[in-house]
Amino acid sequence: MTPDAEFGYELLVCRYAELAWHPSEGPRPALVSRQLGTQRRRWDTVVIEVDPTAFERRRALGDRTIGSDQLHVVRGAPAEWTWYRDALPDPGYPWRYVRQAVHRAAGRDLIEERRDGNRIQIRRKRPYPDWVERIVAVENKPDLDRSAADRLADQLEHDVDAGLADEVWLATETTGERVEPALLREMPVEAGILATDFADGVDADAADVAWHPSDLSPADGERRDPETETLRLEIAERAYGKGWRSFHDTMRPDCRHFELRREGRALVPYCAAKEQVPTARECSGSCSEFSPEPPQWRTKGWPIEGGPGKGLKRVLARRRDRERDRVESVE
Ligand code: SF4
After folding, report:
1. Pairing between strand 82-83 and 42-50?
2. Which of 61, 169, 196, 215 sits most deeply, having the most CB atoms within 10 A of its CB?
3. What's the CATH code, domain 6-55+130-242?
């Protein structure tokens, strides 16, 4: 089945990427997230290729995203006790906000802090690892028609120019037929084209590479500027904490009509009332057909505690953790 909503398609592309990354270069350890980017540009699917050893060290810092303000502190914390204003680079915003971030980072056990007179000193617990190898942006467009192709061409062009990603792709659905060559010719030559066929659900063979992408990483001996590096790390951190299964945070798995359905090796949300994959926007408390799961569902042993809604969230959280474990073991 091909979900009619772009949202459903996006989830299938995320799952495919998790199973098959890299589509033309062979297996690479990577984690997958969705709807991330900058203020100016949000990518549908984001693949973060990682160094497995450094990724293991990142996991030792906990499962949650380290946000931009705490990242500044954690990356800059020195090996010896130092006044935080001497230790950290100028943040470009008032130091009192940095002081708050120091407290929060220490509260999460990411760094140590102590008071020396009226000065706050910090010391690192462990260095922040260099775990991000490459960042790949994928734009998903199940139905590629002329107007969608024009819009996408501009967006992908921007991605190539911005240099934030190491590789950009367009994923589009073919259901067994070739993608219209005239439309593909509109795309920037640097962008890869992934022709998906999810008619029978998702597995690692559910897509073909119709066009190989260019490597947009800086050439040997060149580096990105520090602001871009920081921005990339912030995106990677959000991808790490969020994954792509966090749709349950904004949708209503506690609605009696909400289900998770299997599409090959993917689990995607399904609305039994509307008989389709609901969009993230419609599946909300304001949905006219929202109906809370009855309280007795929560006491009849399904699942052990919390009702089906909580059970589905736990299933998705377990899958995310399992994928993180798998990333460490990909050679
Ligand atoms: S009825 Fe509305 S809230 Fe309930 S699962 Fe369907 S879309 Fe979501």
Report:
1. unpaired
2. 169
3. 3.40.1350
Decide: 116 and 80 in contact? Cβ < 8 Å: no
Q: Which atom of ligand 1 is nearest to the CA of 289?
A: 1
Q: Would you say the CB of residue 255 lies under 6 angstroms from ligand 1?
A: yes
Sign of CA dihedral 277, 280, 281, 286: positive
The total of other beta-carbon atoms located within 10 Å of residue 34's CB is 24
Distance from Cα 263 to the centre of ligand 1, integer Å: 19
Q: What angle do CA 221, 226, 232 make, to 5 degrees?
A: 100
Exposure letters 11-22 (e unless 16+ CB within 10 A, then b): bbbbbbbbbbbb
Atom of ligand 1 nearest to the CA of 251: 8
37 beta partners:
42
Q: Tell me, what amino acid is at 233?
A: L
With a 6 Å cutoff on the Cβ, whether 283 touches ligand 1 is: yes
Which tokens hold the place of 144?
């590629």
User: From the CA of 290, how far away is ligand 1's center (Å)?
Assistant: 5
Atom of ligand 1 nearest to the CA of 259: 5
Radius of gyration, alpha carbons of the chain: 22
Q: pLDDT means per 10 residues in the chain (331 residues)?
A: 69 96 94 92 96 96 96 97 97 95 97 96 96 96 87 89 93 80 86 93 92 92 90 97 90 92 91 91 91 73 58 85 82 59
The secondary element (H helix, E strand) that includes residue 266 is strand 266-271
Pocket test for ligand 1, best of 248, 268, 271 (most atoms within 8 A of CB): 271
